[in-house]
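Handout, section 4.2: multi-component inputs.
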Amino acid sequence: MSILVLGTVALDTVKTPFGIRRHMLGGSAVHFAMAARLFANVNLVAIIGRDFPKKYIDFLHQKGIILTSLIRGKGRTFKWEGQYQGDLNAALTLNTELGVLSAFRPSVSEKQRRIKHIFLANVDPDIQRHLLENMHSPRLVGLDSMNYWINHKRKELLRLLKRVNIYVANDQEARVLSGETNLIKAARCLYNYGPRMILIKKGEHGVLFFSDKFIFSLPGYPTEKVIDPTGAGDTFAGGFMGYLTKVKRINEISIKKAIVYGTVAASFNVEDFGLNKTGHLVLKDLENRIAEFRKRVLF
Amino acid sequence: MSILVLGTVALDTVKTPFGIRRHMLGGSAVHFAMAARLFANVNLVAIIGRDFPKKYIDFLHQKGIILTSLIRGKGRTFKWEGQYQGDLNAALTLNTELGVLSAFRPSVSEKQRRIKHIFLANVDPDIQRHLLENMHSPRLVGLDSMNYWINHKRKELLRLLKRVNIYVANDQEARVLSGETNLIKAARCLYNYGPRMILIKKGEHGVLFFSDKFIFSLPGYPTEKVIDPTGAGDTFAGGFMGYLTKVKRINEISIKKAIVYGTVAASFNVEDFGLNKTGHLVLKDLENRIAEFRKRVLF
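Output:
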């Protein structure tokens, strides 16, 4: 099975109490891909600049990511610089350099247009819509966004929400977009905007899923090893969407399992800088951790 | 079986987006008792003032709470006034009037001294220690505290921690007392202070349990009905400790079950002001909600 992800490929500089790493391979589409590749052929739709290191291209190739729609623009690669303090739950953005991202117009091959599973990771809602309109007949479309677009392109985002199946938001975004503080009320409101499945990510506190069929709450994997949470949300989405490409039916059982896969994938992501962990995962790693997770959360 | 709880009996005034209620029956020992009474005979050790309404005494009697060690001091009853905003997760204390609490010295009857299950709810650690020293041979002792004592009577609190089995703290208290931001690291540190079981309450995000045998993480009951969270932590403790009075063995299975009972008890508490919900609970209500909870958190 194939999955297509639209998002960013970035060079991340991250400062944490555990040290600093400069210009690591990152971005929403890359973090998503690292988890989704364990379940499906990942087609990455993104833009990089002239300064993008060849070693990162090689790395993505090696991981089996399909790069036919990774275009190289004139200019510099999107760069993000952030800092984590204290409990490492919230990133403080120190600097953002859009570079080629500001002129990004995704295009996909005729073959890719037939892919059924699509994830629109966080970029401008206009770019997300543009890509979605190019797809033939998607089976399952997930969408992520961020506060910047909620505040600056609310209308466009709301229009897009009517056309996707799954909206993935963090708790803060869910509250801002819905105007509700209680997360179930927020989820119900977002559900009424269109998507039949709402996933609210709560960082270390896990995930809340809402649909008209059921509500599901799962804590994060309890771990004391948190080095760099950058990309944990996208890794979660990659595990979640990736798993769903493999199931016959999207129902309560498969959705819960997908959330569990996403959760443990994200738990690996935070254990080291950048892709140091998720870049080397195999499916068996997730399965082993799910067994441990069961002990720690089931009763 | 019997359980003894030392704590406060208060007159609470609470302001929330849903309204204001003045001088409701509250306090740590009372909220604890409302849940614990579903499992055991609750002996309440606390102080009230001359202004304490007879209707509240009658109410506690009616609920089967044993009041032989509820003493009436010269002065006014302890009063707390607080406000909740936004997601109702954090209380803003507007006013505290200690009244008789400042001169409280608990005393228990000879019969009560033989009670095996004890909960030292949040009062001055010197008072907690005083009571504990009066008990004959406790089987299980739980302790709660608050930031004020962590900051002002740290030494006394640390000395006390060596003598209890279970320490119940909220996430903020756990972080302050341990100096660790990651909650598992914090729990490990608190464990090293003495108690063999650490329970960290995370409000709407549920509970983290830590021991040398196992770690357990449980989300809160997902609900959109949050009216007044005052006393939710004590209600949790009451359900947790209450359930454990009834089990033969305190092991992984019974501890997990106790945490589930505490969690659903707390979920009722937040659904209305004061004791409006927990004052009318029967065990069957908890069991019905546990069935619903299973659907929402198990996979």
